[in-house]
């Protein structure tokens, strides 16, 4: 070792050391080499060597090791350039090590090294997309503390992120601070705030902000501005206000798009005004907007709400003719409407169609049909539907199990009902008092008090259900009023 170090002391230079680390192609060994030569030879390594190791460790996800290199780098009097610092901070954020990223920024604040507004905004976007809006706010404040000036785009990212998670009042705080930093709100700023207000059901306040935009110089409402308020009015079932704003929008030569018309169609459908909904659909075609699955689903929903299921089925056929694929919501609307009219066979056909679609269904689509067949006494078909559910990777929920338990009890299949209850517990689906009381009541009527007592015991121990007073209602004997089928 001594002769090796003697040789290196005479021949090793920072540039050769960089080449060695690069050729090693192993940052862990490279760091050992760096520490050995720094400690034993007092070699001041080049920035390139440190940058290479920092990047390599980040690529490997070894941010603690990157921090060790970073500390060596600073002690040698080197600072990472903006590019390397940006890479380091971004890598930490991507790895979820937000606090480490802040440490890196804080440690270079006195050395005039920044990450630049572009990289800063990129990091804000990354945090917002990862639903880490609070972290984005914290990062923004840290950036200000380091005396790096934000731009309008920075504010827009934060305001948009806050509005999406419903923190509109907090978004307005940043909006009010923009002028302090010499940033001027643009239409993107206002669109985020208006959309956030409307989604919080503060549509009138959103409309007032739209009017404020109209009065500003150099900025005008666009299709997104109007559509946000129109959609807000439609969801509040204020169709007169929505229609007037649509007319104003067109007069202002801001052309509505598919989203605008879909909001209007859906709004009129929800209030049962299908003449106006159809008229909005015709206007949509007139303005060159192409109806999509949302348009047809809204029309189908409107007709089904009005009890005009056949008209909804005609629109379903029109969708197929236009090769527009229905959504899970489309299926749900028609299946519920058919079940409501006791048209179980047609609802069952829709479930069969869904079986061959690339749609992952939810229990709420199946439950009305299962309930219908159970009430009709056809529990065997209900069981087949549940099996199809599970084939589609759709697990039965609490309502599914409760419907099945009650259905089997009504048919006198008490042991089947008990088995379903046991399966419900086994898969971790917690019953409620309705499930337990329905099964226990049926078991008592069927003259099965011991089984009823065991169900109460399981519900009490496993799910903390059933009061002691309910337990005392179980007699030791009872007359059988329900036939028992094995």
TrEMBL record:
Keyword Lipid metabolism in record: no
One Pfam family matching this protein: PPR
Taxonomy, superkingdom: Eukaryota
Family listed: Belongs to the PPR family. P subfamily.
Keyword Iron-sulfur attributed: no
Name under which the protein is recorded: Pentatricopeptide repeat-containing protein
PPR repeat residue intervals: 46-80, 151-185, 186-221, 222-256, 257-291, 292-326, 327-361, 362-396, 397-431
Keywords: Repeat
Organism: Tripterygium wilfordii
Alphabetical list of InterPro entries matching this protein: PPR_rpt, TPR-like_helical_dom_sf
Alphabetized Gene3D superfamilies for the sequence: Tetratricopeptide repeat domain
């Amino acid at each position: 070792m001594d002769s090796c170090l003697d040789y290196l002391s005479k021949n090793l230079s920072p540039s050769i050391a960089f080449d060695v680390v690069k050729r090693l192609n192993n940052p862990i060994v490279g760091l050992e080499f760096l520490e050995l030569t720094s400690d034993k030879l007092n070699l001041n390594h080049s920035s390139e060597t440190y940058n290479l190791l920092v990047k390599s460790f980040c690529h490997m996800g070894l941010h603690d090791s990157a921090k060790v290199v970073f500390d060596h780098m600073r002690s040698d009097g080197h600072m990472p350039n903006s590019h390397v610092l940006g890479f380091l901070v971004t890598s930490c954020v991507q790895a979820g090590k937000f606090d480490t990223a802040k440490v890196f920024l804080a440690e270079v604040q006195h050395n005039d090294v920044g990450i630049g507004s572009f990289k800063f905004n990129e990091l804000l976007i990354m945090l917002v997309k990862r639903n880490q809006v609070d972290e984005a706010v914290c990062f923004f404040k840290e950036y200000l503390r380091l005396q790096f000036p934000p731009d309008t785009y920075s504010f827009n990212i934060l305001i948009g992120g806050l509005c999406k998670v419903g923190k509109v009042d907090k978004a307005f705080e940043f909006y009010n601070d923009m002028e302090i930093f010499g940033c001027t709100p643009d239409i993107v700023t206002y669109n985020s705030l208006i959309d956030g207000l409307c989604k919080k059901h503060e549509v009138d306040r959103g409309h007032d902000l739209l009017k404020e935009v109209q009065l500003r110089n150099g900025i005008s409402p666009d299709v997104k501005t109007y559509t946000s308020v129109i959609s807000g009015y439609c969801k509040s079932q204020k169709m007169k206000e929505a229609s007037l704003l649509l007319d104003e929008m067109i007069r202002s030569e801001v052309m509505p798009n598919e989203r605008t018309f879909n909001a209007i169609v859906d709004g009129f459908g929800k209030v049962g005004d299908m003449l106006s909904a159809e008229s909005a659909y015709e206007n949509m075609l007139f303005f060159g907007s192409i109806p999509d699955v949302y348009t047809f689903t809204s029309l189908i929903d409107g007709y089904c709400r009005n009890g005009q299921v056949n008209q909804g089925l005609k629109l379903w056929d029109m969708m197929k003719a236009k090769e527009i694929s229905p959504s899970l919501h489309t299926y749900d609307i028609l299946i519920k409407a058919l079940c409501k009219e006791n048209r179980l066979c047609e609802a069952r056909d829709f479930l069969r169609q869904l079986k061959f679609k690339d749609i992952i269904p939810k229990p709420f689509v199946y439950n009305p049909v299962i309930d219908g067949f159970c009430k009709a006494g056809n529990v065997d078909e209900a069981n087949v539907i549940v099996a199809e559910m599970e084939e589609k990777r759709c697990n039965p929920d609490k309502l599914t199990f409760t419907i099945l338990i009650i259905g089997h009890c009504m048919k006198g299949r008490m042991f089947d009902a008990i088995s379903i209850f046991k399966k419900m517990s086994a898969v971790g689906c917690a019953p409620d008092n309705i499930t337990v009381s329905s099964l226990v009541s049926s078991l008592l009527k069927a003259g099965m008090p011991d089984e009823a007592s065991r169900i109460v015991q399981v519900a009490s121990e496993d799910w903390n259900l059933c009061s002691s007073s309910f337990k005392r209602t179980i007699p030791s004997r009872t007359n059988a009023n329900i036939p028992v089928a094995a």
